[in-house]
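Final report, closing paragraph on structural work. Over the funding period we assembled a curated collection of sequence-structure pairs, and we close with a single example.
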Amino acid sequence: MKIYLCSEDLAKQINITSDSNSFGHKKRTFEKGVFLWPERFHKTSLLPQAFLAHKKKQDIETLIIIDRIKNLEGIIKIKGHINRSGTSFLIAETPCGDRPTFPDMSKTYKNKSGETVITIGPERFIENNKQKTKTTSEALAPIAALWSYVGVSLQAYGCGKNITSPLKLIEGISKLG
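Its predicted structure, as stored:
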């Protein structure tokens, strides 16, 4: 099982520390899989070239991507996103290799059911307590765009603040299917 955490803060929340670093990312290898997350929410870590390198090195074709969410406590399945983060790490970085300049984002997620989240970016995520009716995510949209761009199939989940261990996280994902 290969799991991508959208932020260092999520890794801290579920009490995972890295055992290695590469391509601007931290990694933790477990008996049943690998957790990977960016060192920073910045173009130094989040480039198409870095994601291509991870795809090749980790042999990633399908990935579970998890982001922190607000307004829900547990784990949710995500079927789509609206990017209101003001960020895209693909700008001025495409085309990359033989990939297109403008990627097709219509089939980013494998999940056909679940919620559509509003990604607001790390800075606004910490401060945002206004949005009570929609589920907001921290960093999913720009990161999912990168994985999709390099040809990785994604299953996306949101993780609320009461999930504090990797075991709880994996159990919650397994229950949702």
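Helices lie at 8-13, 48-58, 122-127, 140-149, 166-176. The first strand starts at residue 2 and ends at 5. We thank the funder for supporting this effort.
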